[in-house]
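Quiz preparation item.
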């Protein structure tokens, strides 16, 4: 069966995507920082779908942890898909740039960009060997639009978008998709803007956009989930 590594997979979009792939028979290696929640997620997916689901708790900024994720995937047969979903905001709640701690910006860059690249580098031999290997980096509209208080997080996602674009050029045998999922009701958004209680779509509602990419395998590039859900690219 195909094998996917998904970071930030214990809840939100990561868990919703893991659920959808498990329902299709994929074997999974899941990452998150909270062991108890991650293990519950992995157990629920195994029980519901009968696939192999390996939980590897840890921090993606740790090189040893990234190596453990790829080693776990190798034990399942390789890496067909790598989803970099784990994210850090840089400040919770978000702050204007004049108040953003440099340490917060460094954390956002380390999690959202440096760790994502490190995991790709670790997994590249297996992705290349898969024949139909794919990388998905979860982006944000804040990477392309200027929103007050979203500067640090948006800058990190813009950097991730550019890395994904260059990786797509350098690895023509792979598919590399940066995906902006649009607004979602997630813990990350609640931490970013705790006073915003407007209703937002559940993460599961955008998963079909990711599945469309896997089914149709369009060219590497940046895609918006709303457009994919509407049948556009």
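Solution:
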């Amino acid at each position: 069966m195909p094998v996917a590594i998904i970071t930030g997979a214990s809840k939100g979009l990561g868990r919703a995507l893991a659920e959808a792939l498990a329902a299709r028979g994929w074997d999974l290696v899941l990452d998150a920082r909270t062991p108890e929640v991650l293990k519950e997620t992995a157990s629920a997916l195994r029980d519901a779908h009968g696939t192999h689901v390996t939980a590897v708790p840890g921090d993606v900024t740790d090189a040893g942890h990234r190596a453990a994720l790829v080693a776990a995937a190798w034990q399942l047969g390789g890496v067909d898909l790598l989803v970099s979903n784990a994210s850090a905001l840089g400040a919770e709640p978000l702050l204007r740039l004049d108040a953003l701690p440099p340490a917060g910006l460094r954390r956002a860059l380390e999690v959202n960009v440096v760790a994502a690249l490190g995991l790709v580098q670790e997994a590249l031999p297996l992705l290349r060997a898969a024949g139909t290997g794919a990388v998905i980096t979860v982006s944000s509209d804040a990477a392309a639009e200027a929103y007050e208080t979203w500067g640090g997080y948006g800058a990190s996602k813009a950097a991730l978008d550019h890395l994904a674009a260059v990786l797509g050029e350098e690895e023509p045998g792979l598919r590399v998709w940066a995906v902006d999922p649009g607004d979602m009701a997630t813990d990350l958004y609640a931490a970013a803007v705790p006073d915003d209680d407007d209703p937002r779509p559940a993460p599961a509602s955008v998963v079909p956009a990711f599945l469309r990419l896997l089914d149709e395998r369009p060219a590497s590039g940046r895609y918006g989930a709303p457009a994919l859900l509407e049948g556009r690219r």
